Amino acid sequence: MKSLTPAERRSLRARAHHLHPVIMIGEAGLTPAVLHEIGLALKNHELIKIRVLGDDRERRRLMPAAICEALDACPVQHIGKILVIYRPRPEGNEPQAASRPRKKPRFRPKRAFQRR
């Protein structure tokens, strides 16, 4: 688990401010399936928010460390039931830019009087 400098943490918190939680952890806690989904989300997004359901404050307090240790990530922020986790993408694993959709050719009437 890599530690972040205060400046890095501040910039990541600013980037995460507008994000919505992509993972919700239920009463079952950190199951292997949940850890797998968190890993996929980190691979695709690099910075994610996680919502932890449940009222056990102590369990929520320990959860970021458990997630980060299992997935080699860094905890950024923990406020209430929301966790922010960061794992940098490996070099050369940048997401592909989406190609622009092709425009449909405009309908052209055969005769000028058919135009509307």
What does this structure look like?
The protein has a single domain (6-88), classed as YhbY-like (Translation Initiation Factor IF3), CATH 3.30.110.60. It is built from three helices and four strands. It has helices at residues 6-16, 32-45, 57-71, and strands spanning 23-25, 47-52, 74-79, 82-86. Strands 1-2-4-3 form a four-stranded mixed β-sheet, with helices on both faces. A hairpin with a 2-residue loop joins strand 3 (74-79) and strand 4. The model has no long low-confidence stretch (mean pLDDT 86).
Topology, pairings included?
Blueprint: H1 6-16, E1 23-25, H2 32-45, E2 47-52, H3 57-71, E3 74-79, E4 82-86
Parallel strand pairs: 1-2
Antiparallel strand pairs: 2-4, 3-4
